[in-house]
Fold this protein.
Amino acid sequence: MKILKFIVASAVLASSGAAFSHGNGSHAPAGPMVKEQKAWGIAGDASSAQRTITLNMTDDMRFAPNHFSVKKGETVRLRVVNQGEIMHEVVLGSKATLDEHAQMMLKFPGMEHAEPYMAHIAPGTSEDLVWNFNRTGQFDFACLIAGHYQSGMTGTFTITE
C-alpha cells in the first residue's frame, strides 16, 4: 500500500511539474510560465508590477515583514531575500494548501517544484515573484522546507477592495 501511495503521489507531483530534488538552485520555471488562477491571485507580468515588497528570510525561521497588504487587482513584485546561511523558500497560498504541501514536504523532503507562486532561495541570494492579487481575502505564505514551517516560518497577507 505504501508503494502504491508513493506511485500515486509521484504521478500527481509529476503532472503538476514537480520533481524530487530540492537542491540549491532556483525553482524558476525553465519554459513559459503557466498562469493558473488561485484563490489568492494569478501570476503577474513583471512589466505590470506597480511596486516591490521585500520579504526577508532568516535562519531564525522568520519572515520580515510577516504581514503585508495589497489592493485587489494590484500586481506586486515580491523580492524574496534569503539573509540566512541555509536554504529557504516562500510559497503563497491558503492555510489549507500550505498545510497540505507542508505534509508532502515532510514525506518527500527533496521535492522540487516550480510554480509562479513559490520561490526557492539559496543563502545570500534573492528572487522575485510577480503576482497579481486579483481576489480579496486574507491568505498565507510560508517556507515549506521540512521543519521550517513547523518552526513558525509563516506570514499572512491581506487583499483589500
User: Anything to note?
Assistant: Confidence is low (pLDDT under 50) at residues 1-30. The beta strands are 42-43, 51-58, 62-64, 67-71, 74-82, 88-93, 118-121, 126-133, 137-142, 154-160. The radius of gyration is 15 Å. DSSP finds two helices and ten strands in the chain.
